[in-house]
Amino acid sequence: MTVDWIRAALEETGKTRSGLARALGRSPSAVTDLLNGRRRLRADEIAIAATYLGVEPPRLIGGGRAPPIRATVPLVGHVGAGAIAHFYADGQGPFDEVGAPDAASAKTVAVQIRGHSLGALFDNWLVFYDDVREPPGDDLVGRMCVCGLADGRVLIKALKRSHIADLWTLLSNAEPPIYDVALDWAALVREMRPR
């Protein structure tokens, strides 16, 4: 039995081996053995892997219509004081998965708000965005974004053009504006919802 479809789906969706291991009820090393051909995929694991990955397995290995699934996206960090995002390191895992927003893409991820950095009502809410890391454009002016600053900070703020070329003003409901900052990237917040 080939597991190329699993390998491809992991890469395509950005989901993790440790997440797949949790879904299968196996150790991460068992998933590594599976992907390296040292262990065979059991028949009962096909549907579990397909559900976790959000893909239909190839028909030649028992595919067909998988049961309806609720798509998930990785929870990649949290937002703390000053709306600064703190991302989980790759080696920290296992990471959590949360229900995906409507029309999520393979690049959609989430961060969780901790505390009152975006206002008292938003404690423990999830913020979804596409992790594409492209420079901001005029299409993001006035919109809530996850912003990567040139100094390495990642903030959740609304964007406004600065009076200085190529710089931005970052707006918040709970804090004073941050004026004239350089942004390496910005991504539109797709959705926010309580966890």
Outline of the structure:
With 195 residues, the chain is an alpha+beta fold.
Oligomer status? single chain
Helix and strand succession?
HHHHEEEEEEEEEE
Question: Helical element count?
Answer: 4
| DSSP summary, beta strand count | 10
Mean residue pLDDT:
81
Find the structural class using helix and strand composition.
alpha+beta
**Which radius of gyration do the C-alpha atoms yield?**
19 Å
The amount of helix comes to 10-25%
Largest β sheet strand count, sense and barrel closure:
10 strands, mixed
Shape label: elongated
Strand content: 25-35%
Task: Explain how this protein is built.
This protein has 195 residues and is an alpha+beta fold. It is built from four helices and ten strands; from the N terminus they run H-H-H-H-E-E-E-E-E-E-E-E-E-E. It has helices spanning 4-13, 17-24, 28-35, 43-53; strands at residues 72-79, 85-87, 97-99, 108-113, 125-130, 144-149, 154-161, 168-171, 178-181, 183-194. Strand 7 and strand 8 (168-171) form a beta hairpin. Helix 2 packs across helix 3. Strands 1, 2, 3, 4, 5, 6, 7, 8, 9 and 10 form a ten-stranded mixed β-sheet that branches.
